[in-house]
Amino acid sequence: MNWDDTSSVTDDTQAGRLVGAAADGEDQAVEAALRPKSLDEFVGQERVREQLDLVLKAARQRGATADHVLLSGAPGLGKTTLSMIIAAEMGAPIRITSGPAIQHAGDLAAILSSLQEGEVLFLDEIHRMSRPAEEMLYMAMEDFRVDVIVGKGPGATAIPLELPPFTLVGATTRAGLLPPPLRDRFGFTAHMEFYEPVELERVIHRSASLLNVEIGADGAAEIAGRSRGTPRIANRLLRRVRDYAQVKADGVISRDIAAAALAVYEVDARGLDRLDRAVLQALLKLFGGGPVGLSTLAVAVGEERETVEEVAEPFLVREGLLARTPRGRVATPAAWAHLGLTPPRQATGGNGQQDLFGA
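Predicted structure:
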């Protein structure tokens, strides 16, 4: 399976999960209504907002286009929203595309040649762009020029095409996959961090107001605690809890209502869903806490290897419930405690060596 195929599988799986960070069609439509329209409205990412505000204000004072911007971080943290805010703050139109959609240099040339002066080009998942298009982008970003190749073989001719000044906003979930020549051409780079629960509570209260949903402080806190540090997930959970409150209660979201609703959707107190718990249960009950190979673990839960590695594991590792070791995946003491299971007196691997537990 090549890289694009793997990403497609994991993106589809993420979008199908209530706690998946990828956005499906419904999420995209709702996000458009809930998105903040300015940096002042944007919740969280304080350092990034402060730095970006300086970049944009300086560009406006000079009467110039803003420097190219690279935003990295996990899905659902606000990269697309910030790109739209950049365009709004600069009073410029925005063009949105993605790396997988640009498989040939001609695809990129067609987009670049149609840009207006000062326009913002948002390129999502920029690390998945084809290499020929990537090399064309180098010159476009630096010199606002591209060479269009006409013909083939020895008779091919390069025709230079001048471009109006524009701002490229690149977004990536895997900054390490960007080649240095491309990364170095961005004038401003920012890494988006996961949100703290108190920040997610502010996001939830703002979204509830826009959705005309009555929610208490304890209800917002309950949803925030299960949102995996991601605003997109927080908004998705809010909508599902709203549905439950509308059908099963008086429409007001309290802590008890939120907890009952999320229990129906199988999202537990730490934000783990069915897939996450299946991985942990297999690791603990079938393999004694590990270590166990990824492929074996994937077969045990009936999922593709890539799904377990790219969809479930990142959150489990970040929560300290699972560890990746050279010998395989190993459960931590926190995993045993979370599932209410008692670890063996000494959790060992297949060769009898002690892993994470003392005697």
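Summary: The chain is about 45% helix and 10% strand.
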